[in-house]
């Protein structure tokens, strides 16, 4: 059974089989977000969650009964593939060298440009100051140089500290969630039964699957997945998006829980302040300032904050909304902002095309999480049933190639690399595309350097890689994705601007959303750059990166 993470569904064939034996869905969709708190909707969500849990149980049982699925390649093919890989850049580079050399695209080894002392951009000062050491052997990933953290970022760090110390004296009463309601009803039922029953039946306890007397939850307990508050929240988020309980995978639930946990710091600071302010009629000046502060502390940025407040204020002038509805309206504003790039230029469905070569060039400064992200996407892609390959074109640091190889082996995805240190990255990309074409690869992930002698060299190199891709694979679906470290807050935006000058960026991958109070940076990126967020990372593990969903993000950011 293959769950396609890009499509957020099981691949068609498996889906059909699954549905034949699936437990029928029971949730009725709420007509509006405000309806979430009605007992009927709460009950529906609870039933939906139970059905989803049971279906995941079934998936687990059938997965454990299935024979181990083989790798992507048959044994023979694997051998051939290896041979091709062994041949590395040699035959490919030899095959069409004139084409490239004639165009002056490929530099001979050792002919890389000398470090230049000019530094047009302060963000690259450190890079320019550091000597070019092609044999750099560091095994540990490098942190983003402090110099990257400019005044804006320093300010953001200060504000983040303030965020931590900001403890609202008395949180405003939250609307009763369906969890609390279900628990209250359960307690009441329990009490009634105790009072009236001669022989008390075993009470339903949906929190402990397999409890005697609870037939629908009987069966194998799902290892590592309790039917708890986190499960119920995740189920509600999925159900509210129109998903059916039989379409949900264990990975989705786990991911949503992780995302919510990751955004915990941002959410706690935001939601407590917002709940206390909204829902009291039109916003007065003091309330506007408080919302502004809360959003700016979450690194939403001035431009996006102004728009959010304007839209919220407009609505509250038209009608006085109770807090739950005002928050629901705020969520809508945030979702619309995050989805705006899809109305203008970009496709909302970010899915590699099957049986087509998709090439994703991954850029970003060192330390942003580029290598880790490539490994995670490779894993996601492989798990989702795509033939995947990685081209290790960050040849500036020897350690970078080794790191990509480690992630490649974790994801069980081959890596095309040139063993020669400081070799031409464009040649590696060229070889990567040749290998991808020969193997019928569907997704080729290209790692690129995050640091060169100076900004100009870095940008020239990225532009050159893009030209090679366009020339060598004119029919491929190409995306240029920038990896940004969410903890850098506004400073990440400056990096994005620099990169977008060199390569035609088509999206952003936001990493390290866990453990930052600056989760609002996603809104600033979309508002200021007009770029869609394509993936978000919330942890260092291979499973900790998933395609971005504005609905899920906003729920995790300011949901209950
Ligand atoms: N907490 C957290 N850490 C992350 C995430 N993504 C990456 N990291 C960590 O960030 C550090 C840098 O990640 P790398 O993938 O090595 O970054 P890079 O951009 O490739 O940088 P170089 O390795 O220097 O080329 C590593 O310690 C990763 O484990 C994330 O989503 N959350």
UniProtKB/TrEMBL annotation:
Gene3D superfamilies: P-loop containing nucleotide triphosphate hydrolases, Signal recognition particle SRP54, nucleotide-binding domain. InterPro entries: AAA+_ATPase, P-loop_NTPase, Signal_recog_particl_SRP54_hlx, SR_rcpt_FtsY, SRP/SRP_N, SRP54_GTPase_dom, SRP54_N_sf. It comes from the Bacteria. Its main location: membrane. SUPFAM superfamilies: Domain of the SRP/SRP receptor G-proteins (SSF47364), P-loop containing nucleoside triphosphate hydrolases (SSF52540). Residues 54-63 have a biased composition (Polar residues). Keywords: Cell membrane, Cytoplasm, GTP-binding, Hydrolase, Membrane, Nucleotide-binding, Receptor. Signal peptide: none annotated. Belongs to the GTP-binding SRP family. FtsY subfamily. It catalyses: GTP + H2O = GDP + phosphate + H(+). Its EC number is 3.6.5.4. Involved in targeting and insertion of nascent membrane proteins into the cytoplasmic membrane. Acts as a receptor for the complex formed by the signal recognition particle (SRP) and the ribosome-nascent chain (RNC). PROSITE patterns: SRP54. This is Signal recognition particle receptor FtsY. PANTHER family: SIGNAL RECOGNITION PARTICLE RECEPTOR SUBUNIT ALPHA. The gene is ftsY. The lineage of its organism: Bacteria, Bacillati, Cyanobacteriota, Cyanophyceae, Oscillatoriophycideae. GTP binds at residues 364-371, 447-451, 511-514.
């Amino acid at each position: 059974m293959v769950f396609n993470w890009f499509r957020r569904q099981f691949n068609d064939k498996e889906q059909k089989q699954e549905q034949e034996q699936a437990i029928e869905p029971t949730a009725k969709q709420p007509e509006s977000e405000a309806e979430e708190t009605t007992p009927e909707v709460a009950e529906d969500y609870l039933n939906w969650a139970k059905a989803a849990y049971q279906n995941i149980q079934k998936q687990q049982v059938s997965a454990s009964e299935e024979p181990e699925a083989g790798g992507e390649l048959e044994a023979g093919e694997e051998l051939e593939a290896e041979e091709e890989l062994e041949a590395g850049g040699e035959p490919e580079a030899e095959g069409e060298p004139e084409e490239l050399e004639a165009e002056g695209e490929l530099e001979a080894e050792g002919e890389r440009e000398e470090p230049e002392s000019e530094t047009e951009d302060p963000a690259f000062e450190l890079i320019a100051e550091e000597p070019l050491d092609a044999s750099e052997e560091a095994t540990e990933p490098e942190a983003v140089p402090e110099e990257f953290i400019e005044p804006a970022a320093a300010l953001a760090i200060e504000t983040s500290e303030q965020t931590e110390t900001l403890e609202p004296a008395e949180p405003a009463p939250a609307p009763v969630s369906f969890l609390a309601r279900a628990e209250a009803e359960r307690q009441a039922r329990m009490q009634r039964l105790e009072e009236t029953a001669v022989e008390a039946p075993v009470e339903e306890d949906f929190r402990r699957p397999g409890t005697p007397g609870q037939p629908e939850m009987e069966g194998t307990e799902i290892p590592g997945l309790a039917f708890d508050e986190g499960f119920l929240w995740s189920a509600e988020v999925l159900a509210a998006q129109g998903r059916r309980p039989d379409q949900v995978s264990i990975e989705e639930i786990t991911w949503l829980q992780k995302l919510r946990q990751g955004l915990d710091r941002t959410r706690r600071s935001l939601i407590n302040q917002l709940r206390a302010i909204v829902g009291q009629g039109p916003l007065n000046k003091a309330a506007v300032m408080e919302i502004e502060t809360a959003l700016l502390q979450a690194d939403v940025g001035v431009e996006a904050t102004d728009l959010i407040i304007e839209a919220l204020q407009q609505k509250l002038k038209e009608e006085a909304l109770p807090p739950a509805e005002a928050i629901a309206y705020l969520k809508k504003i945030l979702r619309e902002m995050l989805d705006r790039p899809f109305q203008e230029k970009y496709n909302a469905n970010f899915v590699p095309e099957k049986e087509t070569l998709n090439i994703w060039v991954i850029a970003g400064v060192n330390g942003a999480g580029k290598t880790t992200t490539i490994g995670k996407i490779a894993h996601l892609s492989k798990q989702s049933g795509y033939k995947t390959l990685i081209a290790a074109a960050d040849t500036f640091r020897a350690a970078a190639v080794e790191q990509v190889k480690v992630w490649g082996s974790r994801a069980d995805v081959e890596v095309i690399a040139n063993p020669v240190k400081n070799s031409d990255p464009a040649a590696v990309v060229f070889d990567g595309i040749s290998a991808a074409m020969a193997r019928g690869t569907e997704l080729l992930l290209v790692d690129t350097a995050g640091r060169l002698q100076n900004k100009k060299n870095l940008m020239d190199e990225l532009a050159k890689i893009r030209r090679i891709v366009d020339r060598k694979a004119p029919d491929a679906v190409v995306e240029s994705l920038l990896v940004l470290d969410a903890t850098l807050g506004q400073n990440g935006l400056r990096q994005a601007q620099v990169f977008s000058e060199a390569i035609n960026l088509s999206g952003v991958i936001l990493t390290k959303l866990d453990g930052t109070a600056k989760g609002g940076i996603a809104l600033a990126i979309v508002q200021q750059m007009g770029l869609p967020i394509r993936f978000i990372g919330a942890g260092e593990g291979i499973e900790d990166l998933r395609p971005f969903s504005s609905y899920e993000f906003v729920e995790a950011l300011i949901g209950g």
